[in-house]
UniProtKB/TrEMBL annotation:
A Pfam short name: PFK
Gene (name only): pfp
Organism for this UniProt entry: Petrimonas mucosa
Lineage of origin: Bacteria, Pseudomonadati, Bacteroidota, Bacteroidia, Bacteroidales
Residues flagged as site, Important for catalytic activity: K200
Listed EC numbers: 2.7.1.90
Residues spanning the signal sequence: none
Site (Important for catalytic activity and substrate specificity): D174
Pathway: Carbohydrate degradation; glycolysis; D-glyceraldehyde 3-phosphate and glycerone phosphate from D-glucose: step 3/4
Top-rank taxon: Bacteria
List of residues binding substrate: T201, I202, D203, K240, Y241, M248, G249, R250, E309, Y422, E423, G424, R425
Name under which the protein is recorded: Pyrophosphate--fructose 6-phosphate 1-phosphotransferase
Residue ranges of domain Phosphofructokinase in the record: 71-316
Alphabetical list of HAMAP family matching this protein: Phosphofructokinase_II_Long
Cofactor names: Mg(2+)
Activity modulation comment: Non-allosteric.
Length: 550
């Protein structure tokens, strides 16, 4: 593999990790746990893995190690996130320390590799090629869902053949939900296979008191913030464009909010606030147009607008429409596919309830069509395909044209639209993500050594120096609730949305009026890997503000 100068320099970087993991450890068990909601339903579905205690690793005088080697399988599941390779490196180093004869196997292209028996052994020379690098290309990733008994049994065949005693699934909320289901099944049949999860997603929506952040969020936000900063510098130089920038993040607005904290744009929409205020699409357009008009009065006919990917789902009227569409297509997809393209819009209008039919009929043709495109594997609208940035730019222009005719607006309004998503998913991980991911992987190996299953690797206190980080595990059932998927109620990990009473949003809200009218742009520049710790090792602004309140 040929390498860039940065890759060569990064290859020698030794990730920082909790001091406790450098010596002998023993697991300390806390009190019994319960799911975040729907306790009775979750308990019935997970009788073998429900209620387990939170685990914290502490120093031990006893020599750590395994008498027999352990073979471990690893799966990268779902969308890429910076740092995945370091999770795998952490697992590898951890199990080799426990017993030098332990072996690590990677399943190719995600969960499908387990079901289809496609794998490769990850040896030291392979692992060393990928340390501190971005991407998931060491074994690839995929979005196959593990939810059927037939898949579990097929996977068990190859696990037994390779004498694999533990499987680590590195993924987001849906992937870790699958890990929880798999752990429950294997325990129920005494398969002798442990299942451990690792919290991955740039979206930032997989977190709680024990999981402070999902890995990849820090790096992705720094990449997007660099690009937003570059655009803002251009914007402030040319002084003639409004840039509408949509940011990846699925349902939650964590990425948009973090990038706003890093760059101080004129406008940042937070979907969770739109929903809380029961705003319509028209309200959102009015809010943006009002700020555009106020800046125009000062001769500032330029600016930046940050838009979260999932905005459309949080506008109450649109949310109700999408929920009905999801249910309808879950049961009538085949019939819908048979309808000619020219007739699909009228077909949908005829099948929806009167209120939602009216809303659907009022949407621009492109947005209406995008709402009926194929669902993702979890039955959700693929919001990344809905060009919300273009929709808002067009609607704001229409509103300003109306105001101009009424004499309420005299400025100029030209737009450029952007969507930042894939640009950040495979970036070389920041020092924070390189360290955090390695620690998550190493912690996963310790959970395996402790005989645990149905746990997610947890590393906390990460705004402190890495030596003070707290390593342990959280039962995945603790994060579960019941949600409607594909027209039926299913157990899933509860998504963590932006808290409107949380420190990050409150800080943003206290500054946004100033940022809206003044040109207060920050230009973060590229991720720094070498230099003083205050430049290279800082976690996200979100995490710093959240931890400040604890």
């Amino acid at each position: 593999m040929s390498k860039s100068a940065l890759q060569i320099a990064r290859a020698s970087y030794v990730p920082k990790m909790p001091q406790v993991l450098r010596g002998n450890v023993q697991p300390k068990e806390g009190a019994a746990t319960e799911s975040v909601s729907d306790q009775e339903e979750i308990k019935k579905l997970f009788p073998n893995t429900y209620g387990m205690p939170i685990i914290t690793f502490e120093e031990s005088q006893r020599e750590m190690g395994l008498e027999n080697p352990v073979n471990v399988g690893v799966i990268l599941s779902g969308g890429q996130a910076p740092g995945g390779h370091n999770v795998i490196a952490g697992i590898f180093d951890g199990i080799k320390r426990l017993n030098p004869d332990s072996r690590l196997y990677g399943f190719i292209l995600g969960p499908a590799g387990l079901v289809n028996h496609e794998y490769k052994e990850l040896t030291a020379d392979i692992i060393d090629e990928y340390r501190n690098t971005g991407g998931f290309d060491i074994i690839g990733s995929g979005r196959t869902k593990l939810e059927e008994k037939e898949q579990f049994d097929k996977g068990l065949e190859i696990l037994k053949k390779l004498n694999i005693g533990a499987l680590v699934i590195i993924g987001g909320d849906d992937s870790n939900t699958n890990a929880c289901v798999l752990a429950e099944y294997y325990k129920s049949i005494n398969a002798g296979v442990q299942v451990i999860g690792c919290p991955k997603t740039i979206d930032g929506d997989l977190k709680n008191d024990q999981i402070e952040t999902s890995f990849g969020f820090d790096t992705a936000c720094k990449v997007y913030s660099e690009m937003i900063g570059n655009i803002q510098r251009d914007c402030n130089s040319a002084r003639k464009y409004w840039h509408f920038i949509k940011l990846m993040g699925r349902s939650a607005s964590h990425i948009a909010l973090e990038c706003a904290l890093q760059t101080q744009p004129n406008i940042c929409i937070v979907s969770e606030e739109v929903e809380a205020k029961q705003q319509s699409l028209d309200d959102v357009v009015n809010d943006i147009a009002t700020i555009v008009a106020k800046r125009a009065e000062k001769g500032l006919n330029f600016g930046t607008v940050l838009i979260p990917e999932g905005l459309i789902e949080f506008i109450p009227a649109m949310k109700a429409l999408i929920a009905e569409l999801n249910d309808f297509l879950a049961h009538n997809q085949a019939e819908f596919d048979m309808v000619r393209r020219s007739g699909k819009r009228d077909y949908i209008i005829s099948k929806l309830s009167p209120k939602n039919s009216e809303i659907y009929a009022s949407l621009p043709e492109t947005v209406a069509r995008q709402l009926t495109l194929d669902r993702d594997p979890h039955g959700n609208v693929q919001v990344s395909l809905i060009e919300t940035e273009k929709l808002l730019a067009e609607m704001v222009k229409t509103r300003l044209d109306e105001w101009k005719k009424e004499g309420k607006y005299k400025g100029k309004f030209a737009t450029i639209t952007h969507f930042f998503g894939y640009e950040g998913r495979c970036a070389t991980p920041s020092n924070y993500d390189a360290d955090y991911c390695y620690s998550l992987g190493y912690t996963a190996s310790m959970l395996i050594a402790a005989g645990k299953t149905g746990y997610m690797s947890s590393v906390r206190n990460t705004t402190a120096p890495a030596s003070e980080w707290i390593a342990g595990g959280i039962p995945i059932t603790m994060m579960m609730n019941m949600e409607r998927r594909h027209g039926a109620m299913k157990p899933v990990i509860q998504k963590a949305l932006v808290k409107l009473d949380g420190n990050p949003f409150r800080y943003f809200a206290s500054n946004r009026e100033k940022w809206a009218i003044e040109t207060s742009y920050l230009y973060p520049g590229p991720i720094q890997y070498f230099g003083p710790t205050e430049v290279c090792d800082q976690p996200s602004k979100t995490l710093q503000l959240e931890q400040k309140s604890k």
